[in-house]
Amino acid sequence: MIEAVGSKSGNKTAGTKRAAGNSESRLPQKRQKTKDIPEPAKQPEHPWAVDPDQVFRFTDLPGELRNRIYEVAAEWSYRWFPPTFLKPKKTRRGKSTSCDEDRTSGREPLPHLGLTQTCTLIRTEFRPLWLSTNRFPLYVLDGYFKAFFPAPLRASQTAAEVRTRIATYYNPAGNLRLWINKVSLADIDVLQLLKFSNRFPAYKFTVKAGLPVITPKTVASITALVENKNSTWIKHIKQHIITQVRIKINDPNDDDRLHVVIKESHAPKWAKSYLGLGHTRRRAKYWGASVGLGDAGWYLTVGVDYS
């Protein structure tokens, strides 16, 4: 005798169901939901990293010891200051050439640059000393001056305390090494360098030849140009009468070229008209002598800015 499903019987098992073929299936049992137990917070692997008593405090050192550390860092920077290269030019596909990659792959960071960007105290003590260890080619000086010698802030824009503090970040009588490398042989505008020289008259510039092709004559010509203190020359630069000063270093057997561009309102008449190469060169030579460039050793030409 077969019992009907759902009939009362003493042998009935609760939660079961008779299926076809005398097979039985068991209903899943309900389980109580449990919340995820948060994992315990991990302890730091280095307890000293959060222990203020174990942190090395550089600024707590005596001033004499800090100065000695600065001197060692500056000496290292001066000796091992890395060379500077042009940024690789990307092709239309956005890839740089293998030659450029080889030239920039081994680029080294500027030594001890991070020490100049830690805090106001260390920056004031070490940054002026570090800047005198720098060595850069002519074609990066515009960006270098903007980064490390920004234009003075106006009194209406910044408080006097801030302007005084920023003025301690560099030495107005420091030293900058000018590294004349292969790229410096090209046509380069050095007007910003001359403006910097006028802004800091006591700053010293040391011209270093990076290639054998850079002769002592070229080094002397660049030095004379940067150190030119002729009053008329300085006035023309400060009043923006001169808009470009371009140098081009040629073959050692030829004179290095210096091309000065003057605003139309201040340019001499002979520079605005073509009177023959020989006549123009003689006039340019006389004009160069009047602004302190007579003995600089340049092949001088004068252009006119009509903008």
UniProtKB/TrEMBL annotation:
Compositionally biased tracts (Basic and acidic residues): 34-45, 98-110
Boundaries of every F-box domain copy: 49-132
Residue span of region Disordered: 1-49, 89-110
InterPro entries (alphabetical): AN11006-like, F-box_dom
Xref: Pfam families: F-box-like_2
Top-level division of the source organism's lineage: Eukaryota
Listed name of the protein: F-box domain-containing protein
Organism: Decorospora gaudefroyi
